[in-house]
Amino acid sequence: MSQTTSTRPVGVDLQESEDSRAVVEAIEADNPECAVQHFPGLVRITSPQKLRITRESVEERLGREWETHEFQLAIVSYFGHIKEWDDDEIIIAWDH
User: Which of 10, 13, 20, 57 has the fewest beta carbons under 10 Å from its own?
Assistant: First the structure.
């Protein structure tokens, strides 16, 4: 029996802002398979299986401490499930 893996994408739409640019750069660095689309006032990031947002990666690009709850300030919408959200990382993925 062969197993098939779902390629149903997950993603997030973020408001365009100075802080969210650092978040987008961090997401791109931590998720090399993701695609980023820029729209007026909005950035859409999609990935084939999951998106991982890490506090450490965002802080490196932002140049200051960043708490994962700040992510809520930039989110316009997302598709997938929030699989994990703690002080160090956020993971968006579908349940299988």
Answer: 13
CA distances from 4 to 1, 67, 89 (A): 10, 36, 28
Beta strands (DSSP E) in 19-74 are 35-39, 42-47, 50-54
The tokens describing 63, both together, are: 């140049």
pLDDT digit string, tens, across residues 40-58? 999 999 999 999 999 999 9
**pTM, to two decimals:** 0.87
**Domains of the chain, start order:** 10-93 (3.90.56.10)
Count Cβ neighbours within 10 Å for each residue of 38-70 and write b for 16 or more, e otherwise.
eeeeebbbbbebbbbbbbebbeebbeeebebee
Q: Which helix (H) or strand (E) holds 18?
A: helix 18-30
Supply 8's token pair. Answer: 């149903």
